[in-house]
Amino acid sequence: MFSTRIPKIKGTKKFFGKNQPVISLGLPSLDAILGGGLPLGSSLLLEEDEFGTYATMVLKHYLAEGVVNDHPLSLAGQDIDTKKLVADLPSPLIGNANQGSYNDDGDQLRIAWRYQDLPSKLPSNAPVFGNTYNLGNSMMKSELEKVNIDHWNSRKSDHSYDDLLAYLKKHVDDAKYNLSVPVENRTVLRVALCSLGTASWVGDIVKFLINLRILIRNSCVTCLITVPTGLFQEFMLHRCEHFCDTVIEMKSFLYDANLAYSDYEGLLILKKLPVINAWCPTIPDSNDWAFKLKKKRFIIERLHISPELNEQTHREEEDMSNDYKTQRVVSNIAQEF
């Protein structure tokens, strides 16, 4: 069990009732949705939005959180410059999400008089897990140089997935991450695999994901994988989802003119939640999540639709239904004559 084999590691946390330590993805709201964070020894499959813009933002938060916690990073990509990706990692905001104001917008809220004297911020000694990042500012080069960052690229290889698996195995076998080797100073290796499944990758992606799952299961390694879903056939995408521990789809509203979604950039669809050393996953209190950009921050929150817009949409659907019924009646009468 992880609880007896792993000492406390910087940037990890154990939750009550769970034996599996987790890391933060750099997005406290997403950590909460997943039941606290991403479990060690697990993989997260992130299905990209149409142009991969927002999936890349999530990936950057995951890597930036690793830098802040001195976690080594290992990146692989065939169609993306991973060095440029690291150079554009967002910088952490002063303080953190747990110490920020309850009112994120800084607006004055009308609350009951009995609550007006309560502090608007958590105490400074409150437990901290996960940071908040500013997408408008890049992380300082001096901070990046403090962390061991490896980049894999094998454009000339005819066996991309096999070569990548062998590369990752060398890292996982390192005593710092390998649980079969007793060491005191353990740390977490954060792996980022960018846009798997494009034409630049050669080999069997499903076989790779199976072997990757076996490789990292009993280790201090986490893996975030992004895939461009538009390049996958449905049955192949389902097979990839089956061999990953967590699956999240990002759906952009880029071409959606629905006013009900005007406050958001897209939907966050939970397809699979992690079940590591547990009977069942932690079930979030909602299945409707959306993301947006606000004040240079990437925000994930429950999907809220204003009552007026919701009622308007309902009326439009009723009108369309009534028009359809009227057309059917007219058509039936015409056929009788």
TrEMBL record:
Subcellular location: Cytoplasm; Nucleus
Pathway: tRNA modification; 5-methoxycarbonylmethyl-2-thiouridine-tRNA biosynthesis
InterPro entries associated with the record: Elongator_complex_protein_4, P-loop_NTPase
A GO-annotated cellular component: transcription elongation factor complex
Chief subcellular location: cytoplasm
Keywords: Cytoplasm, Nucleus, tRNA processing
One Pfam match: PAXNEB
Superkingdom of origin organism: Eukaryota
UniProt KW tRNA processing keyword: yes
BP GO terms, sorted: tRNA wobble uridine modification
CDD domains xrefs: Elp4
Protein family per UniProt: Belongs to the ELP4 family.
The protein's name in its UniProt record: Elongator complex protein 4
Native source organism of the sequence: Parthenolecanium corni
